[in-house]
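// run 5 | inverse folding | seed 20
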């Protein structure tokens, strides 16, 4: 991934995953990396982030992550 922009809060990145563009950003203070849901959805075979987040298997995995308390899988879309 290559850095395409830096602002006061984030470093913005753009990359490619098997022909699919993917966007991410890294919080400059915490180092937390956030992936753009609209970029991730087609890689996982969904038409949109809305379709991805409406899928029962995806919701079950998000719930598992939240319940285990080891991750915050969705902070901001």
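// decoded
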């Amino acid at each position: 991934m290559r850095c395409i922009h830096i602002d006061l809060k984030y470093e913005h990145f753009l990359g490619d995953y098997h022909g699919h563009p993917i966007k991410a950003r890294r919080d400059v203070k915490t180092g937390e990396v956030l992936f753009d849901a609209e970029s991730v959805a087609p890689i996982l075979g969904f038409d949109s982030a809305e379709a991805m987040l409406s899928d029962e298997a995806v919701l079950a995995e998000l719930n598992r992550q939240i319940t285990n308390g080891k991750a915050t899988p969705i902070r901001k879309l």
